[in-house]
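tokens incoming
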């Protein structure tokens, strides 16, 4: 699931970059007076502004959702890595006093 969301996230990022680069800026309207009004014939009389703006908003919202999803996955992975559930318990070590230890030197009295 993590890989799928990551792949969708990368595809959305590339699509957003391409879509934003295709859009014209606010100063590009001056170029239309010199014969650069080709976008109006493809996207209708209103031009490409409304269509591209809405598509950019949708891709941005999806990018935001995938970003939050990846953040949740990263938080869960980090929490699991540093939780006490991953600590393996071993048998308790018995401590013996030197007098009762079998290897302790015998004292002669």
């Amino acid at each position: 699931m993590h890989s799928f969301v990551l792949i969708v996230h990368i595809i959305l990022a590339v699509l957003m970059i391409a879509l934003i680069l295709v859009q014209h800026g606010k100063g590009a309207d001056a170029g239309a007076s010199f014969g650069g009004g080709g976008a109006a014939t493809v996207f209708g009389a209103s031009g490409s502004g409304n269509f591209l703006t809405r598509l950019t908003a949708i891709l941005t919202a999806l990018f935001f959702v995938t970003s939050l999803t990846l953040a949740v996955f990263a938080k869960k992975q980090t929490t699991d890595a540093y939780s006490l559930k991953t600590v393996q318990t071993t048998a308790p070590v018995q401590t013996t006093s030197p007098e009762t230890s079998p290897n302790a030197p015998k004292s002669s009295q």
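note: The first helix runs from residue 2 to 22.
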